[in-house]
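Researcher: I'm comparing several assemblies side by side, and this is the next one on my list. It has 225 residues spread over two chains. Same procedure as the others: predict the full complex and return the structure.
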Amino acid sequence: DADVTQTPRNRITKTGKRIMLECSQTKGHDRMYWYRQDPGLGLQLIYYSFDVKDINKGEISDGYSVSRQAQAKFSLSLESAIPNQTALYFCAVGTSGSTNEQYFGPGTRLTVT
Amino acid sequence: ELKVEQNPLFLSMQEGKNYTIYCNYSTTSDRLYWYRQDPGKSLESLFVLLSNGAVKQEGRLMASLDTKARLSTLHITAAVHDLSATYFCAVDKAEGAQKLVFGQGTRLTINP
């Protein structure tokens, strides 16, 4: 367990508002990821980062931006939220060892009205 | 483009029965992961399969990987109600970035 925390855990916001989701981890892993999960679907990768200076787009980055403020912190922003961004958002951290396993945070349930 | 498909997507079974969930993927990869998700909860890592022929077992769950067939299976033996959950497989795109592509998930319901 990589001790991944996410804040807030639940958020309701209105269309057009800016919102930031935060992720932090205590294990010092270099790799951090943001995923989105829609009901009944698997996870889709939004952005990922290997270190503070390395940010990469995933499959569905449009409408999102990220910031890696420190090795332990990786934030996801919705600059102007829209209803189809209503979803469950997960942060994950990855090991760079032989398994390359990812450990997931508890998730943030975001509703855009 | 790597695609990962699971089947079945929904599975309802009785306690005590055996069943298998299948995970097929479209391009070469040597790393496959199985996760469990309870409703409204996060993903819990179950198995990491790193090579052709790998087999891992934990309790009533056993996972295997055939990289030549691009197929992984998750076998449930003598199911119990506590195993009710959604199970995801995920495949590493093997581009050095540890980018996982997830299947759609299999929602497993085990009835007493």
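Model: For your comparison table: Chain A touches chain B through 25 residues (CB under 8 Å).
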